[in-house]
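Box 4.2: Ligand-aware structure prediction
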Amino acid sequence: MTESELRQWSQRDFAHKYLEIADIMIVGRKRSLDMLKSFYRYFLRGKKPNRVLDLGCGDGVLAHELLNIDDSISATLVDGSNDMLEKAREKLVEFGNTRFVNMSFQELTSEKPDLGKFEIAVSSLAIHHLTSSEKADLFKYVFSCLVEGGYFVVIDCTRSQAGPVEDWFLELWRERIEERQVGLNVEADFEKMYEKYTETEHYSRLDTMDAQMNALRDVGFSEVDCYYKHGLFAMFGGKK
Ligand SMILES: C[S@@+](CC[C@H](N)C(=O)[O-])C[C@H]1O[C@@H](n2cnc3c(N)ncnc32)[C@H](O)[C@@H]1O
């Protein structure tokens, strides 16, 4: 995270605004959370106890979803913003087996703290803030944190290699937001969100689905696949 981004996420208003609008702005949000739970049930639920690492946890939504289906999980939540971690602490207060780590991804990859071993690492809408080489470093670190046979599941924005397809993805996003806003009768400032998303520094960091899956393969992940994709929103991952 750049200094300015870190400052932004650390501002209470910015962080809270994101949480308010995330369900509207992120196409397939509920579906990807449902798919993550299905993934967990299918691949991991029989193998208790499971340790989960959530990278860029925000308010802890992913850990919350997983703990709700398996409260034997111990969860380690990492975020560069203390304010977001505070929200996560509040959200997960009923679960005892949680740990909160205030570190940026850049700090994780340079300092390589020993956070223990995990059966699954997850991350939603956080890794796209990194440059390609920072993503590769993070994937390497995650690989080192997983047990043999452990999984890494990423929910995030991707971009298309082809300009016209990318333009359509953005239009598809606009159409879906408008549809949802009318259906839910809520106002969300799509233009502002769109401007922020396509703003040069942010946009330049987005990588294609293929590039990210190849980066996972390069650090040693197998069974790498895309599990879900709707325009620019995708869910993908692999196994150690
Ligand atoms: C868009 S929010 C997503 C939060 C949550 N995972 C979700 O799906 O709702 C992005 C989160 O990633 C964190 N983040 C962004 N860049 C980061 C970085 N370089 N290191 C650590 N955390 C980062 C932000 O603080 C924020 O909490």
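In the box above, the bound molecule is S-adenosylmethionine. The chain has eleven helices and seven strands.
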